[in-house]
Amino acid sequence: MNYNWNWGILFQTASDGSGTYLTYLVVGLGWTLATALAAWVLALSVGAVVGTLRTTPTPWMGRFCYAYVEIFRNVPLIVQMFLWFFVLPELLPEALGSAMKQMPPPWGSYVPAVLCLGIYTSVRVAEQVRAGIQSLPRGQRMAGTALGLTLPQTYRHVILPMAVRIVLPPLTSEFLNVIKNSSVALTIGLMELTGRARSMQEFTFQVFEAFAAATVIYLLTNLVVVLGMRYLERRVRVPGLISASGDAQMAGH
Amino acid sequence: MFAGFDFDVIQRSVLYLFREGMTFTLTLTAMAMTGGIVFGTLLAMMRLSSYAILNVPAGAYVNLMRSLPLVLVIFWFYFLVPWIGGWIVGAGQPIQVGAFWSAVITFTMFEAAYYCEIMRAGIQSIARGQVWAGYALGLTYWQTMGKIVLPQAFRNMLPVLLTQTIILFQDTSLVYVISATDFLGAAVKVANRDYRLVEMYTFVAVVYFILSFTASYFVRWLQARFAVIR
Question: What are φ and ψ of residue B66, in 5° steps?
């Protein structure tokens, strides 16, 4: 029983003729990062708003945000991908729906993937932001009120500047999750890193070389992100707090 | 907007979806949870060991698994397991492993890394003096672990372990990429056969939502009910 190892395959011309298989995979990494970064921007903006609104004393706002969080947290990511890709264009008004369906590849997969991943991640960001805000001593909020600040002013000048610095470490692991989760977009046809490793395996039958190369690329990416975020965390750490370590969050991927 | 909905297709296929698909999903979840917690606990004990020969490989394994996308890991095991199986039984070629067993092995190995981190935190939450007390009474390492540390660690971490299991339950839908017939896979088959994608995918989302939401509600109740009062 011998597997025919052929690491040279990485330097042979890829099936789409664009270059070697190694470049083929690296372009895949580019798509992975492009998807993850765009989704991350969406997730941070929506998640920060939803998480903050959940801590405000307005009941209906809190309930609305609670429903939002529960809906997108309790449906598997791949099912959400299918909803954005297959179902949404059918439910939208005719013109918009067919515009979505007729987007040329790879944008036809990229746009739904970014929206799906962004909203999916925004829920986790919202929960981290909420936890960060609630971890602040309530005296800070009271002090804001005592100084005559309005609620928005209290948030703007007292609560949020602290909360942002507290939630940054747990957000690192969420960013790593976005990069990993973007691989689910291969199910709607986005040729990102895992998708390209898969198609390289189908064309060359060099299963283990293809997946090993993808694995190494993912590990290197992770390393770069972790080092970068560690630097950022050191810069924004709140002096005097026992720094929350990055592995505070245990469950999840 | 739901005017064109054909609810009949759901009624026609609901029995198949649950009998074939949901059975697959739940069996896979249960087996991967059991295997993952057992293997994960062993990994956690290895990671906390003071012997480098135990804690270095365990740490490397956990970090490797946690750095890779689940989809990639599913592909890895789907192709790797037949080769390893063939090597173990001494067959001259890769053996046939169905999608189900391949998925069971994948999810057990993958989730073990996550369960390991939960159990590690659980073990570390136990006061060190209890371990010393165990040794002082003449208990061995396994007795101390089995009778003193692990029961408390499990109890402390029960909500987190269950939350992770809900995540596992949702993640099993990714076996779609190896064409297994889990709940989603069954729905995809019906959807493509009858060309009813909108109805089927919406139905799948609703079912997953109800099950996961109920389960996480139960976990929160459990947490409030069984929390150790300190």
Answer: -75, -15
Residues of chain A with pLDDT > 90, as a percent, come to 53
- Interface ipTM: 0.90
pLDDT for res A112? 93
Closest Cα of chain B to A86: distance in Å? 7
Kindly report, residue by residue over B61-83, the tens digit of the pLDDT. Answer: 999 999 999 999 999 999 888 88
pLDDT digits (tens, 9 = 90+) for B120-147: 999 999 999 999 999 999 999 999 999 9
Q: B8-226: which CATH number, 2.40.160.40, 1.20.1560.10, 3.40.50.150, 1.10.3720.10?
A: 1.10.3720.10
A141: which residues sit within 8 A by CB, 6+ positions away?
Answer: A154, A158, A159
How confident is the model at residue B146, as a pLDDT?
94
Q: How far apart are CA B132 and CA A131, in angstroms?
A: 36
Q: What angle do CA B88, B94, B97 make, to 5 degrees?
A: 90
Give chain A's domains with CATH numbers.
Answer: 17-237 (1.10.3720.10)
Q: Do B68 and A90 touch (CB under 8 A)?
A: no
pLDDT in tens, A47-75: 999 999 998 888 898 899 999 999 999 99
Compute how many other C-beta atoms are within 10 angstroms of the C-beta atom of residue A32. Answer: 28
Kindly indicate the confidence band of residue B89, based on its pLDDT and cuts at 50, 70 and 90: confident
Count of other CB atoms within 10 angstroms of residue B167: 18
- Expressed in percent and rounded to 5, the helix, strand and coil fractions of chain B are 85, 0, 15
* Per-window interface: B 10-49 vs A, CB < 8 A: none
Q: What residue type is assigned to position B91 of the chain?
A: A
Calculate helix-pair angle for B52-67, A207-236, nearest 10 degrees: 90
Please report the sign of the dihedral spanned by the C-alpha atoms of residue B47, residue B50, residue B51, residue B52.
positive
Instruction: Give the residue with greater pLDDT, A170 vs B150.
Output: B150
Chain B environment of A181 (Cβ under 8 Å): 69
Partners of residue B205 in chain A, C-beta under 8 Å: 75, 79-80, 83
- A121: which residues sit within 8 A by CB, 6+ positions away? A39, A40, A42, A43, A47, A174, A177, A178, A181
Please answer whether residues B190 and B42 qualify as being in contact, where contact means their C-beta atoms are separated by less than 8 angstroms.
Answer: no
Q: Collapse the DSSP code of A2 into the 3-class scheme (helix H, G, I; strand E, B; otherwise coil) and give the result.
A: coil
pTM score of the predicted model = 0.89
